Amino acid sequence: MRKRELKNIEWGILIVAVILSIIGIVALFSATQETEYDEFKKQIIWLGVSLVIMLLVMLIDYETLTKFSPILYGIFIVLLIGVLFTKPINGASSWFNIGFFSLQPGEFAKIVVILFLTFAMTKIQSRKKEEINRPSKLLILFAIVAVPILLIIKQPDYGTAIAFVVATAVMLFASGINKKYIIGAIAIIIIAVPLLYNFVLPEHAKKRIDIFLHPESDPRGAGYNIIQSKLAIGAGELTGMGLLKGNQTQLGFLYPKTTDFIFAVIGEEMGFLVAGSIIILYVVLITKCFYVAKTAKDNTGSLIATGIAGVFLFHMIENIGMVMGLLPITGVPLPFISYGGSSMITNFIMIGILLNISSKRQKTIFVK
Region 264-271: what's the mean pLDDT? Predict the structure, then answer.
């Protein structure tokens, strides 16, 4: 990488990601003492592996990744089909167990779908930007996204599926899609939500929504996790109860406290100051993602950065929203903080791609 490219890199993105990862590791240290810090030790390894992979990805031109995206897309469709035949873990067939590592194809597929969507969009708009508004072209884009979404729903993993939808929506918006389609999509959602709830969603999904609305209706059953999470966050007050001292965390009332409810651990033991700082860090990260999209040298880089920003935005809002009782529980991890090798590696691959996109821009020239 040339000296000029190194100067252009938006290093703030990496700094924020590393700070979030360190906070997550500290929280895991406190949350895993009864298991002899097993997940804490593994997360440190995953962070090291992720940083190495990120550096390698950063050296690969994002346009090269986009050109190979159709092949990667095909590979991950096969993996998403194959994972359906694995033994379910916590009711979901989402992982391949490879020795000490559990590979979750749905996590990596987010990157691949963003790249392939970018490939398709740039091809469609290569002659005329307005081509994206042709119904036949939109159907192609929807088909690209629909296949992995349906396979992920089949696992079932509704949270990851929604992440694909959000990434696609912000990418279409950035590509200049006509407002009539946006209005139409909102109208369809308003009509479809009650129909999906009453006739499509399985009972366990309905139960999650019902419990989100009325957690006190089943305080010892389905509403237990969210009630304990809210108690933990409230108990932390301004500065927290201290590491290794949280009642809900250390007495085993929070579950799963290393993944879905890690933010509740932070809220209880580190308090509002740290929990609030995490939200600010995510806002900075997402803002910088959109800034990279704005200053990218071409439409390809802009669309990729926008899609990545959409993924981070959804994960942040959904995870923090669900542990605070503001959104239904979907099992979505908190980027860089929740325990998980697949999630950590995926997040840093996206950081590597963003750094590569920013390295190719001319900071003094705004393309948008």
Answer: 96
